Amino acid sequence: MTQRGAEAVICGAGIAGIATAYHLAVEYGMRRLILVDERPPLTLTSDKSTECYRNWWPGPGSGMVDLMNRSIDKLDAWAHDSGNPFQLNRRGYLFATGRQEQAETYLELGTEISQLGAGPLRVHRGEPGDPDYRPQPAEGFLDQPTGADLLLDRSLIQRYFPYLTDDTVAVLHARRCGWFSAQQLGQFLLSRARHAGVELVEGKLETVQTDDAGISGVTIATGAGDVHIDTRRLVIAAGPKINEVAGLLGQTLPVYCELHSKVAMADPLGAVPRAAPLLIWSDRQQIPWSASERVELAADPETRWLTEPLPEGAHTRPEGPDSSPIILILWTYHTNPVEPVFPVPHDTQLYPEVALRGMSTMIPGLRRYFDQLPRPVVDGGYYVKTQENRPLITPLPVDGAYLIGALSGFGLMASPAAGELLAAHVVGGELPAYERWFRLDRYQDPVYQELLRHWEDSGQL
User: Fold this and answer.
1) At a CB cut-off of 8 Å and minimum separation 6, what does 388 contact?
2) Residues β-bridged to residue 173
3) Cys-Cys crosslink for 257: which of 241, 246, 382, 421, Cβ 3.0 to 4.6 Å?
4) Where would I find the H helices in 376-442?
5) What is the pLDDT of residues 119-169, one digit of tens each?
6) Does the structure show a pLDDT above 90 at 47?
7) CB pairs under 8 A, 24+ apart, for 215-220?
8) Is 396 within 8 Å of 249 (Cβ atoms)?
9) Tens digit of pLDDT for each residue in 409-430?
10) Which option is the CATH number for 2-51+182-254+386-453: 1.10.1670.10, 3.40.50.2020, 3.40.50.2000, 3.50.50.60?
């Protein structure tokens, strides 16, 4: 067995582990830092994302807004200083509804989120004196509005978003939002971390050793044999495998996994404009089947659920440059906890059609593909979640052990600030006020327990 030493070992080379390594090495100057993973970097779940980001998050408290604002600050700075190699844009998230009650919820929730620090809420009723509505640019991220624009006038909605269903009564355009290339951001951070001395080791963390002072070392199984590393710091950034790795320390984490899939397909008819923001339908719906299809589906117990109301949250966006015909569609209508299995068992037969039909409620132009579905590609991964859908960025009860995980569907957008926060924990640096919202020991706080009993909105799309 080979033996060596390191100041810290990070288990997991997804975006969370890479962001932590970047901050430890580049921002804090830590040397002899090892990043270990069985797979190539960013290939377990980080590259399966929709690659979007937002600062538009509900309470309680401003923790999520603060964390995401910090992440976006960092994304903006990296993009500005480097020439934007990860193609950051600021097109926004456009939530739409056909229900007046939801329009009222947009106003209430938008007011709350604005007050939490996401930026001003501008309401457009089609009346004299309304604030100006500024459409999103297709590219770029500088000098854009913050907060959100709530359009309550149908003529305004149709002027700016003519591809939406005529049934749309309100849209909420959250503005400090958009998307970027996950692979390019990950490689940008990883290359700088490696330049600062981070070593990437391909292998599996097999055992963790402790003594009276806490973490004392780890053993990594590699293709060339086992490697023992003396270290006093271990960071667990293992995505869907965080409970497996935490188990090496005798820890069980309050997390579970959900399977989330996405569809990539061609849209040669241009139902989704290439300059569109991320488009989200906020209403529950029944899938638009023909009468004969509905009868056939209802007759089979295995497919009867497809004729019943399904959850809100179907969403889509254009993928790639203007010349690309590809769109992404996501709709998570099954949220039961599952054990993570790899390769991920996606429903490649039914899911693409269900997702397309669900999205067509918001964008009727997609119905032109019902008779001949464009050839889809399905991928995705697991969202690792706590009960209230807030992450764990925290020291663990074993001295020298740290965790960055339960990043749900927001790992890419949160990791710039989450990695910074976890690195501050590791080195004993100054912690931001929002760190208390993401500690493991929050579940022992009676005040937090009371919040959990009345938690309403997880912020999940």
Assistant:
1) 451, 452, 455, 458
2) 94, 149
3) 382
4) 411-427
5) 999 999 999 999 999 999 999 999 999 999 999 999 999 999 999 999 999
6) no
7) 215/398, 215/399, 215/400, 215/401, 218/9, 218/11, 219/1, 220/36
8) yes
9) 999 999 999 999 999 999 999 9
10) 3.50.50.60
User: Partners of 54 in the beta sheet?
Assistant: 177
In whole angstroms, give the CA distance from residue 180 to residue 457.
26
pLDDT, tens digit, for every residue of 369-403? 999 999 999 999 999 999 999 999 999 999 999 99
As a whole number, mean pLDDT of residues 296-323 equals: 96
Query: Is the pLDDT reported for residue 432 higher than 80?
Result: yes
Tell which residue, 135, 151, 80, has the closest CA to residue 277: 135
Over residues 27-37, the pLDDT tens digits come to 999 999 999 99
3-state secondary structure of 256: strand
Q: Using H for helix, E for strand and C for coil, what is the string for the chain?
A: CEEEECCEEEECCCHHHHHHHHHHHHHCCCCCEEEEECCCCCCCCHHHCCCEEECCCCCCCCHHHHHHHHHHHHHHHHHHHHCCCCCCCCCCEEEEECCHHHHHHHHHHHHHHHHHHHCCEEEECCCCCCCCCCCCCCCCCCCCCCCEEEECCHHHHHHHCCCCCCCCCEEEEECCEEECCHHHHHHHHHHHHHHCCCEEEECEEEEEEEECCEEEEEEEEECCEEEEEECCCEEECCHHHHHHHHHHHCCCCCCEEEEEEEEEEECCCCCCCCCCCEEEECCCECCCCCHHHHHHHHHCCCCHHHHCCECCCCEEEECCCCCCCEEEEECCCCCCCECCCCCCCCCCCCHHHHHHHHHHCCCHHHHHHCCCCCCCEEEEEEEEECCCCCCEEEECCCCCEEEEECCCCCHHHHHHHHHHHHHHHHHCCCCCHHHHHHCHHHHHCHHHHHHHHCCCCCCCC
Where along the chain do its domains lie?
2-51+182-254+386-453, 93-178+256-383
- DSSP letters, 77-104, are HHHHHHT-TT------EEEEES-HHHHH
Structure-block tokens of residue 21: 């390594």
- Tell me the whole-structure pTM to 2 decimals: 0.97
Both structure tokens of 266:
């061609």
